Each structure stands twice: as C-alpha cells, then as structure tokens.
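User: Teach me something about this protein's shape.
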Amino acid sequence: MNVTTSRATDPTRIKADALVVPVPSPAGDPEGALAAVDTALGGLVSAVIADGEVTGGAGQVRVLHTRGDLPAARVLLTGVGDAPDRGAWAAAGRAAARAARDAGARRVALLPAPGTDRGDVRAMAEGLATGAWRLDAFRSGKKEGGKRGRDRGEMEVVVAGGGLPPAAAQVVGATAEAVNLARELAETPSNHMTPTILAKRAEQVARGRRTLSIDVLGPRELTTLKAGALLAVAQGSSQQPRMIVMRYRPPKAARTTREVLGLVGKGVTFDTGGISIKPAGGMEEMKMDMAGGAAVIAAMGLIADLEVPAEVLAVVPATENMLNGAAMKPGDVFTAMNGKTIEVTNTDAEGRLILADALTYCARQGATRIMDMATLTGAIVVAIGEVYAGLFGSDAAFTELVREAGDETGDLCWPMPMHPGYDPLVKSSVADLSNSAKKRQAGAVYAARFLRDFTEGRPWCHVDVAGTAMQGDHATGFGVRLAADVASRVARLK
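Assistant: First, the predicted structure itself:
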C-alpha cells in the first residue's frame, strides 16, 4: 500500500483524483482547509453547509465536482462527527475511500485542518488505505495478471498539509497492508482456506522477513504434545488440523525488554457447530470464525516490518469444526495439553477447546504474558454489540495496557468482569471443567474464565472479537493494529 506525504496546504497545488477534507459536526463556517477549498470553488462549500447538505455527521460523505477549479476532479467532504475518537476518524476514512472507489479514483489526497491531532490524521489515513478493499477473487469478471484474481481496491493515499511525517506514512501503509491481509484471510471461502492453506499463507508472511520464523505442527506433533482438546475438535473433519507457531525476534542490539509477548488467535476455518449444529441461516459467515487467527498472522508480519524491539510468539490453532461419525459428542471427556480433563457439553463451544491447548503451548514456549483474540461467543455481541470487543484479564496492569492500546488504535476493548463468583459455571460433574454452562447467563464471562485455566499463571488477556471482527458479510481486520500496539507497549516494560 503506497501512502506518501506532501507539505502542500493549498488545494490548488495538490494533484489527486479526489481530495478528502474532514468536516466536524456541527459543520459551521468553513475554516482552515475547508475555507481554502471553499474559496477555490467559489463558495460552494459554504453553500452546501448552509443548505444542510453537509452537517459533518459521522460517516457522511458529500461529493463535489470541481469542474477544473482544482487539480482534483472531486472533493469529498467527509464528516467525522462530534468529538470523534480514533475509531470515528478511521470510519470516516473508510467511508471516503468507498466513495472514491465508486468514483474510479486511484490517487486520493487527505487534507486535514492545520493542528489536527497526528493520531487522528493517521487513523483517517488508515481508513482511506483500507476502506476501498474488497475480495473479488471469486468473481468471474475480475482479472489480475491475465488470471482470475482479487481486486484489492487499493488506492494511492497522499496525506497533505504536513499532517504526518514520511516515517509515519510508511507505518500507515504497512498497517493497511496487514489489515487488508487479515480481512482477505478471513473472508476467503473455507474450501479455499483450510487449516493447511492458512498455514501456507502464514509461511508466506514469514518468508522474506529475516526476523520472523515459523513452525507448523500437524497431527503427529499435536499427538506427541498431547493436545487433546484441539485434536478433539478436529476429529470430526476430513481436513487435518494445524498449529501455526510464528516467532519474531528483534536484533539483540534493538531488544529493550526480556518480556516475550504471546499472541494466540482462534483459527476455526469453518464452524458448523458440530453435533450441536448451528442454525442454517447465516452459517456461511462461519468461514470467518478464524478472524482472530487471521489478525494474529497479519499482525506478526506488521510487527516484523515495524521492527518492534520485543520478542513476540504467536500461536494459531487451526481446524474445522465439522460433524461426521468420528466427531466429538456432547458428554465426551478429553484431556488437554496441561492435563486438565474437559467435559464437552456443547460441541459448538469449540473455540475455547482449541485455544486451551494453544495457550498452554504458548506459555510453555516462553511467553511471559499472553493476549488471545477470538470470535468466541455470541454472548459478547448481545452484551456490548459491534463497537467494542470484550476484554478479560488476569492481571490488572496488563489489562489496562491492552485497553489503552485499543483506545490508541481504534480497536476498542471494553473491560469485563472476572469475579470468582463465576467459577461454578465451568464446573463439571465428571471432569475438571465443562466447556459450556447449563445456565444461560454470562456466556462471554465463563468462556473467558475457562481459558484462564490454561495460561500457566502468566499475565493474560482475552479479547472476544465476535462482534468487532465480523460485521455483516465482511471481516474488519480488527485486532491487527491492537496486537502491534500491544507489542510496542510491552517493549517499553522493564
């Protein structure tokens, strides 16, 4: 993704197909960049604001044709809302990108008002760099290099007005590439994104990055490791499971801490629910049940590109959750890697099973603190919707670090309770733990409580992204920026 900068503040000197100008709410009289565009267009901006056609409301995009008065054929007045946070700035950028894509623009310039917070400018630039992406690989009319391929919808983005230094623009470009990769992995149909193919895509991410290595564990290695929970989920599918292990090691001279951040991502490449089968309506979206794992894989490439000065270990357990004659059944008991026995009372609560072994493996491979990301429960969507991911943690300081990273990047996380009073919900009458509670209460909480038993006592956070990683038929790439920022913050720990 090509993201560059320009110090030009005069819209008559900015060459682009479309010029994006943020508009606050309420719009008011044009100032700064808006005033400059208004002058160049003979008062057209003032007129559309006065007529109420432009309010500055979040996500509003009003396209003005410049008719040769500016180098850009169109000006996109883009509302950022009232007191917008980083997520709102990014959303505004995505809305503008879609409008620019629909107009056929390939080069888009962002002209923020002077003095706009640099973090807000970066967020909107990231939105511009990701908002036009779409998966077209499986449409017969789309060609790339003479073959059917994906139209990545990428546009060149120029941040004008000195809003970002060149180094920051490079970070925006790398981040956009990683976010779009996570979306591509998650949206690809499951017959084209099996556990084996996901592992190969992770190998592609590691290839060419000298600080990033990868090891892919198959059924034989998982059996040796006694990863009984992951293997239990996989036994109902003809597709073999994989545990994808990626390790980023910064140059020794650059490393600033002895901490090793563990990133764990759920990689269920398709989830039928197993014998506890899901309703048919909307089941096609379950190709995206590996969005957490996709975010972790993409984030590892970004972390390597950013040269974060801390070691990071990623573990992505990948499998399908299918139903055949060998599938796990409600009432079955399996033994996880750490020796704990688990009664399976709901085969559709499979994500926590595969994460159990992945968390244990991550801790035993040297992670000093762990964050996992998973589309784990519908309950978190009911509780807090699609704006925030649910954040659970065993360590208050680490949980706060993750929450702050979410605020900074726009991958918002809302802290949820982990009170001992929830412990009985994961008790089993025949095993150490049950993977699902009989009571219909606190579903997201007891899922997180279940995971905590497999973290080997490490400071740990669980981010339930069921509401934020998938919106409608599309993946968002949620968690890529969060993971990279958490890694940067861990690098500063002493």
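Now, about its shape. Residues 143-151 have pLDDT under 50 and may be disordered. Residues 166-187 form the longest helix (22 residues). If you'd like, I can walk through any region in more detail.
User: That's plenty for now, thanks!
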